[in-house]
Amino acid sequence: MRDLLLTLIVFGSLPLIFVRPHYGVYMWAWLTYMTPHRLTWGFAYDFRFNYFVAIVTLIAIIKSKDIKIRVPMTIPTIFWLFFILWTLVTTYNAFEYSSAWAEWDRFLKIQIMVIVTYIIIKDKKQIIILAGVIAFSIGFFGFKGGLFTLVKGGYFRVMGPEYSFISDNNTFALALNMTLPLSLYFLQAVKNPFVRLGLLLHSFLCVLAIFGSYSRGGLVGLLGMGTVFWFLSKKKFVSTLIILLIVPSAVLLMPEKWMQRVTPMIESLNIQFLVDAVAFNPGNMIYKELPEIRLPDSGGSVQMLEEVHTLIKKDAEILQDLSVLGRFDAWQLSKAVAADRPFLGGGFGTFSQGVFDHYTPGVYRHDAHSIYFEVLGEQGYFGLLLWVLMHLTSLNYGRWTIMRCRKDPELQWASVLAKMLIIGLLGYYFAGISLGLAYYDLPYHYLSLLVLIRLHVRRHLKIRLETEMNLRKKSSAFRVSHVFPVRQV
User: Fold this and answer.
1) Where are the extended beta strands (E) located within 300-347?
2) Does the structure show a pLDDT above 50 at 270?
3) Is residue 363 a contact partner of residue 287, using CB atoms and an 8 Å limit?
4) Mean pLDDT of the chain
5) The model's pTM
6) pLDDT value at position 17?
């Protein structure tokens, strides 16, 4: 039943998308961020609905006479386009050539729809609807995850939608951090008290889902984002009240093992990780930083579980947290690759076991665990520079919008939305210190929205100025005609 319903919704929307291409952007965002096909159990589970939506949207753009196929040439978009081109160069020179092209293909598909967003989305209504679709799509899993945490007492981890960018607990927490400010934007925008209450409940459940993810990176992002939100808020008493209501309530609902997870003390470590590591490379040191700790050479069998437990208890003062040390290994690899190839980096797929063996022999592979080290290791220092400039200039566009529109009643929505997008991006930057998600769709959509909001504001101000000038000219002509009346002969 779900499969049929989803198929009817998607294919039923195609004629509308063909006539009004901006609906294709909304549908693409919904399919990308909510992945509704993963909520089915039949033929729709692996069906590529977004391909059909993308093809129809592109055809609609080409045939339309009202849409100019042109990306606005602004400072952020120039850096963004150069970054896309640079990933092509690094992919051509990548270590893991085959897997790098597969990753680049995935990255390019994301950027094509961001290009489509730049081409189609123009006015206030379209911008707000796109922001709403994004907030609803990811917020759905935040709502669901918060309820799951509430019902299960926080004992089990909350995970993201399967086979997506945010399928694991860490990346899911990062995505929730980014969308939480959008929920707060709509909380401020709506006037209906029942809708506001529902949005407040939704925000609380999203925070609870972040706690329930057991992601320390997600908590870092939430803490940093909450601090910035408080400083930027005009009503600091209300903001403080909301924070004091939501955060302590979420903490009180979590079990003791959650406290062990987030505190910087020895906890119940991921033993399966150790077993897998030894099975992969028995008898070798996993962490060069800990020469005192060696894993027993038992062929990687599961019978060594007791010995691993003994090692952890014996060397508890040395072995603080294996996951943290794994991050350090990945960061060391990133720096080693960048030192060896400072301009090109290693290309997509750098954090593979083969590259680890080449630069840091005897170390078990880890994901990048940092958006900054991920870009540095894969795109080199030049790619990192383009990536940073792309973000900084977009944030500056958002800052301009906030300063210009915050006291303008007609454009106050733009100021508030830009502020929430910036806070969401700051949550991404904070959480991204220890989480690797540099090529996720959402940050690129946020950057494009900041640029589109500023462009809309400038068009609006230009039209307003022209209207005022025309009214002044008419008023001046009217006064002159009364002072110097023209007599008819």
Assistant:
1) none
2) no
3) yes
4) 82
5) 0.83
6) 93
Q: Are the C-beta atoms of residues 341 and 378 closer than 8 Å to each other?
A: no
More confident residue, 199 or 488: 199
Separation in Å, CA 238 to CA 233, 302, 424? 9, 54, 20
Contact 372, 334 (CB under 8 A): no
Q: Which pLDDT value is given to residue 281?
A: 43
d(CA 90, CA 129): 36
Token code pair at residue 72: 């606005």
Q: Is 85 exposed, middle or buried (0-12, 13-18, 19+ CB in 10 A)?
A: exposed
Among candidates 274, 354, 342, which has minimal Cα distance to 306?
274
For 211-259, what is each residue's pLDDT tens digit? 888 888 888 888 888 888 788 777 777 777 767 776 776 666 666 666 6
Q: What angle do CA 93, 98, 100 make, to 5 degrees?
A: 60
Checking if the pLDDT of 112 tops 70, the result is: yes
Domain segments of the chain: what residues?
Answer: 1-69
Give residue 380's region: left, alpha or beta (phi > 0; psi -120 to 50).
left
Q: Distance between CA atoms of 379 and 386, rounded to whole angstroms?
A: 10
Distant-in-sequence contacts of 383-387, Cβ < 8 A, 24+ apart: 383/83, 383/86, 383/87, 383/90, 383/345, 386/79, 386/82, 386/83, 386/86, 387/83, 387/438
Residue 369: which region, alpha, beta or left (left: phi > 0; alpha: psi -120 to 50)? left
How many residues comprise the chain?
489
